[in-house]
Write a structure and sequence with these properties.
Two copies of one chain form a homodimer.
Chain A (H helix, E strand, L loop, with lengths): L17 E14 L2 E8 L2 E7 L1 H4 L1 H7 L6 E10 L14 E12 L16 H6 L1 H4 L3 H23 L3 E2 L17 E3 L7 E3 L5 H9 L4 E9 L11 E10 L3 H20 L8 E4 H8 L13 E2 L1 H4 L5 H8 L3 E7 L7 H5 L1 H7 L6 E6 L2 E3 L8 H11 L6 E7 L1 H18 L10 E5 L4 E4 L4 E4 L14 H4 L8 E6 L2 E8 L4 H10 L4 H15 L6 E7 H8 L30 H6 L2 E3 L27
Parallel strand pairs in A: 3-5, 6-9, 11-17
Antiparallel strand pairs in A: 1-2, 1-4, 2-3, 4-5, 7-8, 9-10, 10-22, 12-13, 13-16, 14-15, 14-16, 17-20, 18-19, 20-21, 21-22
Helix pairs in contact in A: 5-7, 5-18, 8-14, 16-17
């Protein structure tokens, strides 16, 4: 007998067999001299029985076992009597009558129960992660994560992708997020950087004729953390030569559909909806819209631009927009709920949020008195106003309006129960702007990264209106999360130089930062493009979790520490001397401020840059 | 048509088809107005033809193309006429008559030819790695590497292993090789370390009930480099619970056999030979013997211990050994070759190497006159002496004799052509000593690592003779290389404490270094053990290379630099300030010396510690 991983797989089909089991004591009960132990391994739990009638010396040995003892046992599988069957247990129709036992190891009482749904401080779970990982929900998550990786690999292998490992010790390119640095012992005063993504290397692999590359790659960003950020994270990194955007997205749709089918059994229809960046912002107030429900934002600037409601008219006159969200059926909101709309708007940068309730045919609210009948008529039509609706209005710069109403839309959608938690709604957000204007730096910055290819038909805008250039860039959005993103890349040197000019880089700067990539353009670079999936986040969504830490075996806390191994930690002075560095004690107790004006938010929205 | 990756796959079966091809110009020839271009993609090369008769404008466009231009072409596959077929080309029976062309990108003349077997300085290849990677032998290597990873994964998946990612930012454990350190921005004066292996995490995963874990893991050692070392390297890292050593090795043999069958078509017989560490040292002078040939070392201490050859007798008397290697048929060596044996021995720490030639029944050599007839008789029998043999003798401490004769054995084996370059000879070296005596530190050190399980029957030796304890440790050896290694691990706290005592650690020290692992022992740790394969080295042997750099897409040089991206490099002062460190300029030009007595050689022999 060497099938040892199968506590949870025993069934009536095994009745009569003698089996060996190895696992942990989940719980034990002594019923009148007969000992029942739930024995747990990776596959689940089975009840084993020690009885003086058949267990002999094994009973006394088993009697010493407590929770989380490790046992090796041997016995015969029998069918349970009808009244003792446990329908809550996969193996509940059988039990194993034990004749031999060995206590492989003892255990102290664990600091929290080894079961699902425990209410325990997360820091305790992380300190004892090796016990936390024994809990079935953590086991399921890690098994699903492993399976998801396998599905990615199998699909990509089938499409003739080559898995290539790119360096972890690489060069610092201080654009984007903060780098983690690694001092060099051999080269004093020089540093490696851990990669924020394999971006440049995967492009060089295309120059190198690999044609189709993938890697499930560890990436590093030294940013302040949130629930959905980790200092090291994993992306499924993909790059192809010779495919155009449509060909790549079609392939990635098949990949995504297969992933969701084979992990959680979900049927994902393809092709995915495609929505332009402009439409996503206009209709949903977000470039990662949750499309599980409608509740679209409507522009009403044209209707109210000459309104007596001065707040609307003045914003319209100064180039802003006025937009409305019809919160269907929310006219019943309390005064407090309505008042709370103001601080809600403020949280997203809005100066206010006008509202109108529609009850029994009557429009009420602070601004109603300023609306002309024809404006009310036009709004009724545009917003599909019905009795019981709550109309909300934001007037401001386009970005502010989008943030305010986009977040209000999510709040209302949740409140009204419009969101189907079991649905997976995918969309590609496409036609991103190539460049965004950085008001602080007074220059354009790359919205995706400096290697993103502009649309051919927009190339002439480099001369006249760089901000209007659309990029051949795309994000994959699922249920309001960005789960992937990428672009076609620039592959012609003259276009790359135009791009660097638009970013305000001198050719010297560009060459210092990306010289080896520019050099590569001179030697027959093929058209190429790719994508990266945020693997941790995909696993989070597949397992219905809301915290990335739940998807990672050994995660770090929000302050970037590993509570299990106590990393980071102090090191020997001799180690630092070898590395030609010394530490600079922090003055006082005030945390050191980030310096140098790094655009810390550049990567904020992106789980993956590809 | 979207089959675009297939230049090298066209054959007579495609004749008559219209195909689209995208690839690089390998070479071009103009024969009387007809242009022939060898077009190359990842799959190989095909000849495309431009002729005024069918190519129209495409001919003029193609005429501008030079080596490494990127072309997209469309045309009809035709059979070549008999006399123009190229038997050296897989596609040599066909050519493609081009009707449409687009130049996707131009190229400057590359710094070296894009073909196999070039004689180019390696540093130039590394600087232009993106061109080097286009060469067929590099493409083949990366494709095989990718395939090998897939085979590992598929096999392990089939055996129900779970792929788990372990942290790259982890805790420094200054035992073994030097750590790469990463300063923490959030925690001033604290550092992460890059892992030398996932050893502790994989053991914690076993404590966590994962039962079967694997990962193709990046590992980091800040050591001085050799041809077969890289600062970052890849190991296939494996750990299992509940399997004993025999079960694990049997499974790994099946894995290895499948890997070699599916990559290079080699039939590897299983089970693999097992040889004890003691026998390997005695017979082959090495713990990673090349078993493709015999030529075993023989101990003759008993024969010569009372010999008039004082060098033999005195060594024997002082506890050393006298051993001999019979270099069959080497009696013909020149005087210079025989003289060269002395510096050869010195290179491996030997004081000398005695020799005897046997020609026409006559024994000649400096020591012959000291040998009694009965000694000659005994040597003749022990060494199987025949006419034409060269007998070599080393007398010294056992380790020195092993190094000298082990290396001489390899030299003679190569010189005599005894080594079949196409053979793959595997063996497990087992029964390693648990502890080795460190003469400098005057204490025992772990031969494998401090978590290696002693043999049960040797446990009592902790009290009396720790150096004699054998470990449940094993190395996988192939053709004289160590390609994997591992051990069963200690899983009982009392044994681990005995081990730490034997290593001279106080419990405080042990707890500071490995406290979280010791804590884990208290909560039901299952018996477990594992292995790690040196993936880079396996790929090297599978592809017949002799340099690890050839197996890695973007390797580092012997001075740990990346010539392509120019890493490591200087960084902005602001970056260092954020990390609370500053650099210490090197004084003078003398390279900084490693400090603190790190046991730099601890990891020297091991491509992988598992």
């Amino acid at each position: 007998m060497s099938e040892i991983i199968h506590c949870g797989r025993l069934s009536k089909a095994d009745v009569g067999k003698t089996v060996e089991l190895k696992g942990w004591v989940q719980r034990r009960r002594d019923l009148g001299g007969v000992l029942f132990i739930d024995l747990r391994d990776r596959t689940g739990i089975v009840q084993i029985v020690f009885n003086p009638d058949f267990s002999g010396d094994a009973l006394a040995i088993a009697d010493r076992a407590r929770s989380e003892f490790v046992l090796a046992v041997k016995g015969k599988v029998v069918e349970r009597e009808a009244e003792t069957r446990n329908p809550n247990l996969a193996t509940g129709e059988v039990e194993v009558r034990i004749t031999e036992i060995e206590v492989l190891n003892a255990a102290k009482t664990p600091p929290f129960p080894i079961e699902d749904g425990i209410e325990v401080d997360e820091s305790l779970r992380l300190k004892y992660r090796y016990l936390d990982l024994r809990r079935p929900e953590m086991q399921r998550t890690l098994l699903l994560r492993s399976k998801a990786a396998k599905i990615f690999r199998d699909f990509l292998d089938g499409e003739q992708f080559v898995e290539v490992e790119t360096p972890i010790l690489t060069k610092s390119t201080p654009e984007g997020a903060r780098d983690y640095l690694v001092p060099s012992r051999v080269h004093p005063e020089e540093f490696f950087a851990l990669p924020q993504s394999p971006q440049i290397f995967k492009q060089l692999l295309m120059v190198g004729g690999i044609e189709r590359y993938y890697q499930i790659a560890r990436c590093f960003r030294d940013e302040d953390l949130r629930a959905d950020r980790q200092p090291e994270f994993t992306q499924v990194d993909i790059e192809t030569s010779f495919l155009d955007q449509d060909q790549l997205l079609e392939m990635m749709e098949r990949l995504t559909a297969r992933l969701f089918k084979e992990t959680v059994g979900a049927d994902i229809p393809t092709p995915f909806q495609r929505i332009t960046y402009a439409d996503a912002i206009d209709k949903y107030g977000s470039d990662k819209p949750d499309l599980r429900f409608g509740l679209e934002i409507e522009d009403i600037t044209d209707i109210v631009k000459d309104s007596d409601a001065k707040v609307f008219a003045s914003v319209a006159a100064s180039g802003g927009v006025v937009r409305a969200l019809n919160a269907k059926g929310c006219a019943t909101w309390s005064r407090k709920e309505l008042d709370d709309l103001q601080p809600f708007a403020a949280r997203y940068g809005g100066k206010g949020l006008a509202w109108i309730t529609v009850k029994d045919g009557e429009w009420r609210g602070p601004i109603v008195k300023f609306l002309k009948p024809e404006e009310i008529q036009a709004l009724t039509e545009r917003l599909g106003v019905e009795d019981g609706d709550l109309l909300t209005f934001s007037a401001d710069k386009k970005k502010v309006v989008a943030d305010v109403l986009g977040n209000l839309r999510l709040k209302v959608g949740r409140q009204l129960g419009l969101i189907d938690d079991s649905a997976f709604k995918f969309a590609w957000v496409v036609d991103f702007p190539l460049l965004g204007w950085d008001e602080d730096a007074k220059r354009y910055v790359a919205e995706h990264h400096p290697f993103t290819r502009p649309m051919d038909e927009d190339l002439h805008l480099f001369e006249t209106d760089p901000g209007a250039i659309r990029a051949q860039a795309y994000d994959l959005v699922l249920n309001g999360y960005e789960v992937g993103g990428g672009s076609m890349r620039i592959y012609k040197r003259d276009v790359q130089e135009q791009m660097f000019q638009a970013l305000g880089f001198s050719m010297e700067e560009a060459h210092e930062k990306f010289g080896f990539l520019l050099d590569a353009f001179d030697y027959g670079t093929p058209p190429h493009g790719g994508i990266a999936f945020g693997f941790d986040r995909l696993v989070m969504l597949l397992t219905g979790r809301t915290n990335l830490r739940e998807t990672i075996a050994f995660p770090k806390t929000a302050s970037a520490t590993d509570l299990l191994s106590d990393a980071p930690s102090r090191v020997d002075l001799a180690q630092l001397q070898q590395l030609h560095i010394r530490t600079v004690p922090k003055l006082g107790s005030k945390p050191a401020q980030p310096q140098g004006g790094q655009p810390a938010e550049a990567a904020a929205g992106a789980p993956a840059q590809g």
